Structures are given as structure tokens and as C-alpha cells.
Amino acid sequence: MNNVENDVKQKLLHEIKLLRDEMIFSGVTKGLNHDETLELSRKLDQALNIYNSLKYR
Q: Which GO terms are recorded in the biological process aspect for this UniProt protein (predicted)?
């Protein structure tokens, strides 16, 4: 793995943590079925899918 790939993965992990925290906060304050919570969940899923595709190639 080269440095660029490692940097991308680290930035993605940081984004995943932020999205997870935002989603949890939104779910607690606005509800699990609120549009914002669901959108954050979709974004988190996308980020996790990208991370996993990089991790296992």
C-alpha cells in the first residue's frame, strides 16, 4: 500500500467517524426515521462501502 492510498483511507476513516457521530446525534434528537438521520445513514453506508472496496483490493 502506498502513502497516497494510506492517506485516502485515513481521511475516509475520519469522515466515517464524523458521519457516524452526526447520525447518532440526529437519531437521538430527531428520531431514527427523520429525513436527516436517513440521509446521514446513506452517506455513512457509501463511505463504508468505499473504504471496504479500498481495504480489500
A: regulation of sporulation
**In which domain, by residue range, is 7 found?**
3-55
Query: Is 0.85 surpassed by the pTM of this model?
Result: yes
Give the total number of structural domains in the chain. 1
CATH code, 16:
4.10.280
Helices H, strands E: what count in the chain?
A: 2, 0
What angle do helix axes 35-55 and 3-30 make, rounded to 10 degrees? 160
